């Protein structure tokens, strides 16, 4: 496993597209986990300029334990597309440069090849989960009014859910990249699928009130794992925990994309 | 002799096209084995299958007496028509990936780069390389694992004469070190110069399999130049050859039986003709190849 990760990192790290996407992702992560409060303070000062002292967004406990975990993960997951693009690049490059063929000729089995990509997807998910954990701890300690072990760690399982969300989504992009083999078309299809197809079906299912359609949409199912926590700040009820059946669905989608990708690579001639 | 590669009943179907039809081959240790055939005869498909990048429709093959497993390809070095590497990586970065795949230590990288004369460009990106340099890098990559078998697919395609000569020298060098080499090519001259065995494929069928040294045997022809108005008739009347053909100012007679060039010379001299040019030609692989293909027209046709 370390050998495959080593191979994959050697292929990907010097790649410019990967570097640019990774930097964008890291910047987004730092802004989300550090910049929201300063933004609220800026809003407050603007409101004050307009003599609207009554509105104070800084009272929203965005960065306070334990709310911070659900808040950070549910916002950060919107940037998963950046990691998805980097993975699509890495798989479609192997096809357009024909290096997948050369890798197999050199002695990698097709299964090892797929696993090197899956391990990379897992590595990226684990790294961003870890980074989010560290950043969350830092800002949490800065902004929380009350700190205790149970407050800090009570909702930390949202990070685990975040990891599964990212990993399942990256398996989806791996499948799209393997299926299409052309980077631009694969990325276009990914965006089209997420924005048009899934949203279209979602809205249609809501209109017709057919609830199960949502479960057939992979990205919607993945997004739904961590519920949007923000309505609770205007006193609406939200699901502030991870439901087991939703977690099971995400794992099921991940497994399905793994199976489909493996089948594609093994059946095809290179 | 130890068998390195054995192919039994291998077939490959691309939709309606049968690219490979029940191929049986055996390559022994130390052979330099040439696979000949016109374009589209199934050479590259065969190599693709034995390197596990193309799935066969039926049949099987064995490397070193066992079914191909994850370690067999680590003992094989392959140089294919188009060198394939990551264009955005340097020569060293590319070869280190191959090291990781083949599980060989990194210190081989510098050795092989020196061996192929690329050490000055080792930290430049692959995409800046000329075709000759790319081909040399793929040779370096094939040598990384100190392979017991080398596979070459049209190794000199697109190279300049100097590059072709370098590759040929390298093949001979590798062959002399006792390694088994399998070459697919349509350049007959190349195969004749380096190979010990050869086979001919046509439309996916094996139509000939034999030794290169047997090629020269059999019919010989003699090339004659002399100052005479009707050399054609004189030669035809000699009864030494089966056929006389004129090529510009010289006449080529295909010899019959054991008759030799000396007999031709003596015959002409008796007739009062002095030959000013007399050359014995044994049959080239090219001629043999074309004869084999022509002889099998019905067999290969669909």
UniProtKB/TrEMBL annotation, chain A:
Organism domain of life: Bacteria
The entry's keywords: Membrane, Transmembrane, Transmembrane helix
TM annotation in the entry: 20-43, 75-97, 118-144, 156-177, 184-204, 241-260
Protein name: Uncharacterized protein
The organism of origin for this protein: Roseivirga ehrenbergii (strain DSM 102268 / JCM 13514 / KCTC 12282 / NCIMB 14502 / KMM 6017)
Taxonomic classification: Bacteria, Pseudomonadati, Bacteroidota, Cytophagia, Cytophagales
TrEMBL record, chain B:
Molecular-function GO terms, alphabetical: ATP binding; ATP hydrolysis activity
One Pfam family matching this protein: ABC_tran
InterPro entries the UniProt entry points to: AAA+_ATPase, ABC_transporter-like_ATP-bd, ABC_transporter-like_CS, P-loop_NTPase
Record keywords, A-Z: ATP-binding, Nucleotide-binding, Transport
All copies of domain ABC transporter, residue ranges: 5-228
Annotated family: Belongs to the ABC transporter superfamily.
Designated name of the protein: ABC transporter ATP-binding protein
Biological source species: Roseivirga ehrenbergii (strain DSM 102268 / JCM 13514 / KCTC 12282 / NCIMB 14502 / KMM 6017)
